[in-house]
TrEMBL record:
It comes from Actinidia chinensis var. chinensis. CDD domains: Ribosomal_L18_L5e. Belongs to the universal ribosomal protein uL18 family. Keywords: Ribonucleoprotein, Ribosomal protein. This is 50S ribosomal protein.
Length: 182
């Protein structure tokens, strides 16, 4: 297609080729249009589609359905269940925290890397360590007047084994945890 257009322009008038490869943008000087050079691939060198900012910045994602209505539950769930449980388990240690959704502040934190737990445990990443982290996290959460939390496992995590041990320990020690499995 491009070869065909180029060939047509060359045979009918080579002077038009320069105007064809330039795009019209509005300038700041006296409101007159000026021509800005386009790159070979048809994309402006410095401006994006809106001509509002450099093309290297990330464009915000536009919704597929701009008229989509956000439900009442979606708008209020962060206030109805304000605390979320975050559990991280690696080969060397276990950590868990309760975070307030609205303010994004951690209310209670416990992990096997802390000095008080590290000295007592035989291993920092087995099931008894997970139970200890859950017990200590529940004590710290009750001190901060947090008695309910919600937990949604990450995509890569399965709700079994060590993660389930941390959540079950929280439930056994008086924190009501709602688990959302997708």
């Amino acid at each position: 297609m491009l070869k065909h257009a180029y060939h047509k322009l060359c045979t009918h008038g080579g002077g038009k080729l320069r105007h064809c490869l330039n795009t019209q943008t509005s300038g700041f000087h006296i409101g007159q249009p000026r021509f800005a050079p386009r790159s070979f691939f048809g994309v402006e060198d410095y401006l994006d589609d809106d001509n509002s900012r450099p093309y290297t910045y990330k464009k915000e994602k536009k919704s597929k359905n701009p008229d989509k209505h956000i439900s009442f539950k979606q708008r209020t769930v962060a206030y109805m269940e304000p605390f979320t449980l975050d559990v991280f388990i690696s080969k060397r240690f276990v950590s868990a925290s309760l975070t307030h959704r609205v303010t994004s502040k951690q209310v209670a934190v416990a992990g096997t890397n802390s000095k008080d737990i590290k000295a007592v445990l035989k291993s920092r990443s087995d099931i008894p360590a997970c139970l200890a982290v859950g017990r200590i996290l529940s004590e710290r959460a009750r001190e901060a007047d947090v008695y309910t939390a919600s937990y949604t496992p990450r995509e890569r995590d399965k709700f079994e084994g060590k993660i389930r041990a941390v959540v079950q320990s929280l439930i056994d020690n008086g924190i009501d945890v709602k688990v959302y499995l997708d």
